[in-house]
Specification:
- There is one protein chain.
- This protein is α/β, with parallel strands linked by helices and about 425 residues long.
- It has two domains: about 1-25 and about 270-420, LarA, C-terminal domain (2-enoyl-CoA Hydratase, Chain A, domain 1), CATH 3.90.226.30; about 35-265, 3-Layer(aba) Sandwich (Rossmann fold), CATH 3.40.50.11440.
- It has helices at about 35-45, 50-55, 75-85, 110-115, 120-125, 155, 190-200, 205, 215-225, 250-265, 285-300, 325, 330-340, 345-360, 375-380, 390-400, and strands at about 1-5, 10-15, 20-25, 60-65, 95-100, 125-130, 135-140, 150, 160-165, 170, 175, 230-235, 240-250, 265-270, 275-280, 300-310, 365-370, 385, 405-410, 415-420.
- Strands 3-19-15-16-17-18 form a six-stranded parallel β-sheet, sandwiched between helices. A six-stranded mixed β-sheet has the order 6-5-4-9-12-13, sandwiched between helices. A two-stranded antiparallel sheet has the order 1-2.
- Strand 10 (about 170) and strand 11 (about 175) form a beta hairpin.
- The chain is globular, with a radius of gyration of 21 Å.
- The two termini are about 30 Å apart.
Length: about 425
């Protein structure tokens, strides 16, 4: 049986008798008028005044947008948000777009043009957040639970702070978007390291797709302290079509979005598999993003089974966090010991190593198929390696060491969850 994982990979041949199923986010009919969905959400915000009313009399407005590691349809949202602000009397020269990169690299001008729309990108002031530039950050003390708050000064100088985002299951925060556009979006190293390291103290099975959790509580506390006033969050299909738009209060609107996200992001498999093949697209720019697909795959594979991660990773492992390749994915206890001994100072990297290690070093044997990461680096991370999907599947069959292993295929694995049977 031939299965096409994505447009960037050749088809995979699988024995039909071994295949449990091919799973991806459930198909939902998208609205014909995508712009109308955004306008309707802005006209009827959840738990908030209308954005046009919030904008009246404001002099400095900052809109936080995520970067090209996310599939948020900023090009659809931003024009409607600008129209809404104009209704409140805001002029474009009063508006700054702050690209909420978290710890990712700066976006190029061509990437900005594509993400925001060239016309909008060239009309407005657009700034890349730089998490390492301490002169661009302000210290707001600590949260009630002792998370340090360092954020971009531009956000604090705003008298209206707005966040745009896309809600999918997330290993660190339960679900993406909402206050995440502030933390880690425009935060400094200390804040992001603290929340991410906190998430490493919990299993992925306790965090992924669970909106109310200790990390999300800290994220929301930071966003509130910084003054995030209004969000516009989307639910989308794999092609980027809007399935839902939620605008308004940063917590209430986000939780409403997460409820829909759970519905449209969760597929149900009848049983755990011996082998799971997971295509990381669209979160496959580098391994820092692609591990998201591993977390979904772990929900679908038997403990001790095999995961084949198919991820382009055209920008390699994690340019901003060299510790990932230096140490490789390890058991969580080992990462904790390295961090405690001062060998890993970057807490975000430590958390990433622990997250990946929970799967690669403790849950399953993992094979990497990637054009951007070669065999030597794959092995340093803890993977076996193969040059093609079919070769990776052959390696998995040998590792599974069963005459007829059961197989699950996951498409769009970085933006979904798997439930087994009625679980």
């Amino acid at each position: 049986m031939r299965i096409q994982l994505g447009s960037d990979t050749p088809p995979l041949e699988v024995e039909e008798r071994e295949l449990i199923g091919v799973f991806q986010p459930p198909k939902v009919q998208a609205a014909a008028d995508q712009g109308a969905m955004v306008r309707q959400a802005l006209a009827s915000p959840i738990g908030s005044e209308r954005l046009a009313d919030l904008a009246r009399g404001k002099k400095r407005i900052v809109i936080l947008c995520d970067d090209n590691t996310r599939s948020t349809r900023v090009d659809l949202l931003l024009p409607e948000v600008l129209k809404e602000l104009a209704l409140g009397g805001a002029k474009e020269e009063q508006i700054t777009i702050l690209l909420a990169l978290g710890t990712h690299r700066a976006m190029t001008q061509s990437e900005i043009d594509e993400r925001l729309g060239r016309e909008v990108a060239r009309r407005l002031r657009v700034v890349n957040h730089d998490w390492k530039n301490r002169s661009a950050l302000a210290d707001l003390g600590r949260t009630e639970h002792d998370t340090p708050i360092e954020v971009n000064r531009l956000a604090l100088e705003a008298d209206l702070l707005i966040g745009l985002g896309h809600v999918v299951p997330h290993r660190v925060a339960g679900y993406s978007a909402g206050g995440k556009i502030v933390q880690p979006g425009i935060s400094g190293e200390a804040t992001t390291g603290c929340t991410h390291w906190l998430s490493a103290q919990y299993s992925l099975f306790d965090m992924l797709g669970r909106c109310e959790n200790p990390v999300r509580a800290e994220i929301d506390a930071v966003a509130e302290r910084v003054g995030l006033a209004f969000i516009v969050n989307t639910i989308q299909d794999a092609q980027g079509h809007l399935l839902g738009v939620f605008a308004g209060h940063p917590v209430r609107a986000h939780r409403a979005a997460a409820r829909l996200a759970e519905t449209v992001s969760t597929a149900t498999a009848p049983a755990l598999a011996d082998i799971v093949v997971a295509h990381a697209w669209p979160a496959d720019l580098d391994m820092w993003q692609a591990v998201k697909a591993l977390f979904t795959a772990a929900q679908a594979v038997k403990r001790g089974g095999v995961i084949v991660l198919v991820a382009a990773c055209r920008e390699g492992v994690a340019y901003q966090h060299p510790e990932v390749l230096r140490f490789g994915y390890r058991p969580v206890a080992e990462v904790r010991a390295l961090q405690a001994a001062g060998q890993i100072a970057d807490l975000s990297a430590a958390a990433h190593l622990a997250h990946g290690g929970e799967v690669v070093a403790e849950w399953a044997r993992c094979v990497l198929v990637s054009e951007g990461i070669g065999e030597a680096d794959a092995r340093r991370l803890g993977f076996s390696w193969a040059a093609s999907v079919q070769d990776g599947f052959a390696v998995a069959r040998r590792l599974a060491d069963r005459s007829s292993p059961t197989v699950v295929i996951l498409k769009n694995a970085s933006e979904m969850m798997i439930r087994i049977g009625g679980a």
